Amino acid sequence: MVYNVSMVRMKITANEENQRLDRFLKKYYRNAPLSYIYKLLRTGVKVNGRRVPPNTRLTLGDELTIDISEEEQRAYLAREKPRASKRQFQVVYEDENLLIVEKPFGLLVHGTAEEGKETLSNQVMAYLIDSGAYSPDREKTFVPSPVNRLDHNTTGLVIFGKNAEALRSLSRMMGEKNFIRKYYLAIVHGEMKEEILLRDRMEKDREANKVRILDAGAEKGKLMVTRAKPLKRANGFTLVEVELVTGRTHQIRVHLAEAGYPIVGDRKYGDRQRDAELLRKFPLKAQFLHAYRLVFENCLPPLDYMRGREFKCELPAGMKRVSEELFHGSKHEDKRRI
Fold first, then answer.
1. pLDDT (tens digit per residue) in 133-172
2. 307 pLDDT exceeds 80?
3. What does the mean pLDDT of the chain come to?
4. Are 112 and 175 a contacting pair, CB within 8 Å?
5. Do domains 5-77 and 177-333 have the same CATH topology?
6. 151 catalytic residue (yes or no)
7. What's the pTM value of the predicted model, to 2 decimals?
């Protein structure tokens, strides 16, 4: 088969700079086999008129020239537009750099091929396309992405970066200390009388999709740190505000359970026997855990203007009803945070 070879020219913009050339091409021609990408790197790609190593970092204004057939360009560049049947999230805050949304119960932040296309990320992308804030046809490799993830059944605040610079800064701010403080509300079994600080090492059992806490003094595993502060307590339950200091898989759920305060409705780490009576009264579908508050303590450029900002989202209606009934007339209440 004979292909008509043409030359593709493109300028590197702010959303593509600082990427390795080989990784840029993998994202740009996302439908191409890896062997084809490395063939292009050997014979068909130049940066500013020169052949360069695959690990070359692209900079703003670089010109790429790619020798590729028209047929292969069409096939490997094809983009599948996100399909979202409906918008299930609520917008909490939005500007040119970031979007903060409220994720509902039962919606994945990201999905796999087996789990289908109905995810928060795809719904947000469709929303940004409809609003004109994002154009897949205009962008070469950048895709708006979340910087924090919530479990399938956990509700609350999720942050998306809307451009590459903001996304890089948000990812660093979310992963390092003293930038963004993350708070959750949970109802647990047991009456917690004072604030606790939990600090342990954990490892993940990927087959069981569970986390276990390692013995005290263990050197292996990942460190996880959680703070829990009681807000209300009554009748053997406590409403707690939890600060996620590190961000490990299932961290809050396993940490509170290990400390003797399993989250109500948690089928993986909770106390099913104690849940049984409560679930007969309240039709909870999953754990009572809600990511309700974000505090931007310090910020990196271009997000300096966010310093000191705080965002909250209320408990979903069903969870609010459970909380009000369990703690109605509670004498032990911290009103500063509610």
1. 999 888 889 999 999 999 999 999 999 999 999 999 999 9
2. yes
3. 90
4. no
5. no
6. yes
7. 0.88
Check 151, 200, 266, 275 and give the catalytic one. Answer: 151
Q: Are 78 and 32 in contact (CB under 8 A)?
A: no
- In the chain, what are the domain boundaries? 5-77, 90-174, 177-333
First to last CA, the chain: 69
Residue 205 to residue 201: CA distance in whole angstroms: 14
Q: Residue 193 burial by CB count (10 A; 0-12/13-18/19+): exposed, middle or buried?
A: exposed
CATH 3.10.290.10 fits 5-77, yes or no: yes
**203 within 8 A of 214, measured Cβ to Cβ:** yes
Tokens representing 318 are 């069903």
Q: Which of 16-20, 111-115, 280-284 has the highest mean pLDDT?
A: 16-20
What is the C-alpha separation between 324 and 333, in angstroms, rounded?
12
6 pLDDT above the threshold of 90 = no
Say whether domain 90-174 belongs to CATH 3.30.565.10. no
Token duo for residue 332: 């032990």
Q: Which helix or strand (DSSP H or E) is residue 209 part of?
A: none
Half-sphere exposure of 157 (CA within 13 A, CB side): 24
Q: Which has the closest alpha carbon to 109: 142, 171, 158, 161? A: 158
Element (H, E) at 238: strand 237-244
Residue predicted with more confidence, 257 or 80:
257
CATH of domain 177-333: 3.30.2350.10
